[in-house]
Amino acid sequence: MEDMNTLNSMVDLSKMAKVAYKHRAWIGLYDDVDSWRWSLSNRTFYTGSQAEFRKWQTKEPNNQHSGEHCTEMYSGLWNDINCEARLMAVCLNITGSDVTFVLINKTMTWTEAQKHCRTNYTDLASVRNMTENEMVKQLVPAGQTVWIGLYRDSWKWLDGSNSSFRYWHDVEPNNRGLNETCVAADFSHSGQWEDWNCDVKREFVCYSVTGVTKQVLKVKLKLKKDSSQDLNDPAVMEDMLKQLRQRLKDHGVNPDDVKLSWRKQADGKVFHKVEKKTEKKTKKTEL
């Protein structure tokens, strides 16, 4: 929201282009409609191009309705569908070199099906070739539809950052005009986001990072002997950061120019207790 507040403070609506649906500008969020992947991500399970095998129905996937991020199979052909639909599922079971498929005769959402398969078998079904596609097809009763393990990531940032922050307008994203895979901020409504067809011409917002440096400092803290404080407690760490920010401010540093954070070590902890080394004293005995 800090970034959105900055954008809103910079925009002068009177200077924006007077076009249909004015006061909107492109930002770097987009819907990666081609990022299909299998729930079972272990690359050793796939050889060559097996992870890219697809058996889509004609004109699929089409993301016809917003949120079609999961895959169903019907009569051996695949279709993208909203992950909240409730279908039966086919699980994958791997035992040594044996690969089998199991039909789950119970309706679930895709996420529920994934959890069920991972708990009781190996994962939701990965289909690597036409032979396996036929094996799954034979399991499914005629006229029935099932989940398989193919899904896609949805909204991504062009610069590859992994920020999960979203600021959608009400009922957005809605893919109302189909192929609405790019995002514009509507500055007449506090910069809230809308999905739009990428071919629409709009003003746009760029950004650059200048003069940014990163420095890692090692901090050693000395606790009182009777202290029971847990330095890895998130509340305690946040309180220490607040004190450090205040120290910087007291020394004339603008706190908005510096971002402080703790760096976790390999075991997920920030702080480790260092035991004091004690020298063993040896007693000399004269004979």
TrEMBL record:
Keyword Metal-binding: no
A GO term for molecular function: carbohydrate binding
SMART domains, alphabetized: CLECT
Keywords: Disulfide bond, Lectin
Superkingdom assignment: Eukaryota
Gene3D superfamilies in the record: Mannose-Binding Protein A, subunit A
Pfam short name (any one): Lectin_C
PROSITE patterns xrefs: C_TYPE_LECTIN_1, C_TYPE_LECTIN_2
Tagged with keyword Disulfide bond: yes
Domain C-type lectin: 1-92, 101-207
Entry protein name: Hepatic lectin
The organism of origin for this protein: Larimichthys crocea
